[in-house]
Amino acid sequence: MKKLINTPDTLVDEELAGMAAAHADLIRIEAPNVIVRKDAPRQGKVGVISGGGSGHEPMHGGFVGLGMLDAACPGAVFTSPVPDQMLAATKAVSGGAGVLHIVKNYTGDIMNFEIAAELAGAEGIDVEAVVMADDVAVKDSLYTAGRRGVGGTVLAEKIVGAAAEAGADLATVKALCQKVQDNVRSMGMALTSCTVPAAGKPTFDIGDDEMEIGIGIHGEPGRERRKLATADEITEALATPILDDMPFQKGDRVLAFVNGMGGTPLIELYVVFRKLHEIVAGRGITIERNLVGNYITSLEMAGCSITLLKLDDELVRFWDAPVHTPALRWGV
Amino acid sequence: MKKLINTPDTLVDEELAGMAAAHADLIRIEAPNVIVRKDAPRQGKVGVISGGGSGHEPMHGGFVGLGMLDAACPGAVFTSPVPDQMLAATKAVSGGAGVLHIVKNYTGDIMNFEIAAELAGAEGIDVEAVVMADDVAVKDSLYTAGRRGVGGTVLAEKIVGAAAEAGADLATVKALCQKVQDNVRSMGMALTSCTVPAAGKPTFDIGDDEMEIGIGIHGEPGRERRKLATADEITEALATPILDDMPFQKGDRVLAFVNGMGGTPLIELYVVFRKLHEIVAGRGITIERNLVGNYITSLEMAGCSITLLKLDDELVRFWDAPVHTPALRWGV
Hints:
The structure is a homodimer of 332-residue chains. The first copy, chain A, is α/β, with parallel strands linked by helices and 332 residues long. Chain A folds into two domains: 12-183 and 320-330, Rossmann fold (3-Layer(aba) Sandwich); 184-312, Hypothetical Protein Tm841, Chain: A,domain 3 (2-Layer Sandwich), CATH 3.30.1180.20. Helix content of chain A is 32%, strand content 24%. Chain A is built from eight helices and 14 strands. In chain A, the strands form three sheets. Chain A has a six-stranded mixed beta sheet, with helices on both faces. In chain A, strands 9-8-7-12-10-11 form a six-stranded mixed beta sheet. At the A-B interface, helix 1, helix 6, helix 7, strand 11 and strand 14 of A face helix 1, helix 6, helix 7, strand 11 and strand 14 of B.
């Protein structure tokens, strides 16, 4: 295992210390493993929180700041955060207008966010939750009943965060997050495994001439193990199930998100975006906004995922709204 | 070789097509392998250009846009661009106020930019050049007489681009770039090799328990091959030669840049930043600005580099100025 770490046990703590040192203008570490927007709580604003296992950086901690998340709860690598963390985050960002939990659909995350919501409710904080489940690859998975929550979560956090920043109430913010979930689809693939530091060896074995189509963000099995193919063939293999699922239709406007899994260089992600643009245009669909880069990763896994979000004017407006976080910034 | 590509021969063209599709609001492809700011040429503005081999993305093409570069010339992977490209870029951005070439110190880049400058001069365009040579690892290198140009180039492009955007004349812009070069120092390391697509095999062999300290951005040998160490020890091994070189002194204000080589996840870069912050503070030096992420990469190499730039009020002001490029954006 070759990694820039000290010990697996101290990795997340040391990462958070580094984030706090680098981004003291944006965030603070409120409690162990709770990253909070520096000016939280903001009175009268709906708090927006997400969380999940570490190892997917910059998600979620890199999205805490103006116009996006009010707090993030990172667990150990690929391990759900605990209810105490989520409760601490919920209390830290509660400004009297309620708190939305954006939860990726993994059994541990769902259960722990539910417990935290109950505990917060007992302390008089209104909590609502939306479950993101945008991965079309598999119906059920290793850690999931139903579809996994993947790249669509990044887009939901940006859009919902903008609405909360603009003063929308809890019901409106929740409905908007559900709207994103209803209109977003994703699928990923891997060329290599990643290595969880505490495990010390690759999560799965894969041949030098093989790839995994439909991979999960923790290296969970996908749809099929195939022989290595060209970037264009891989892009087709990801885009087609996404386009066919909702389905996306001629005349649709979309946000196209090509995400790197952590170990794939940007030069390759643009090759994928090029082909995706061609495929989508070929169906009479317009890419109105895009995002290309590493935003929801699986440690150093090589591979990519594609996410398409069907847009309307409301979603475009909130996507374009100012954001200032460690990992995503514009308009400010 | 596992990569998201179609063929090595078409890789750069396809990447540029992807960039053009994703960032049509910011850039256009002016000539083969010449990325130009969409609104170039801007009359009365000094044009700022850089270029070099591909494989270091987002550098340089990702830095074309408002407040940074006017054009970038990507060569084949790890191969200098040709004079014709640089000439085309120079002419495309010439708005009558002259053009600055920011050149990383590699023999091929230097020679070809010099030829392009002569050709542009013959067409009546004033061209000046500044050579970036900030890598303290080695005195001479595989492709270099003198120090290599590495991470300091990213900072120079941002700062110089802001000055040109603000209307500074060619002599001022050149002097500012030289000031950045005089005040910036870098060093990198690698845990793994990268694989140049056309070669199809790793650039160098390295043991499972080894690392290369002082690596170049093309995988050139560094200072020494050592046994794998902790992130804290590695950070010390990079920071100490940088701090001692200029030397940086108590009371200095610096921009600290922790850069990923392409295959190292962000979670690890923050662990490095944490230790760097501690080391620098221990010497009575203040990190006033920072940048953490993948900005000057070596394909999928695992590793990182550290760059420190000594700041003054002028450099801070230009660093903070608005920028809007595919890879770096704030204030707009």
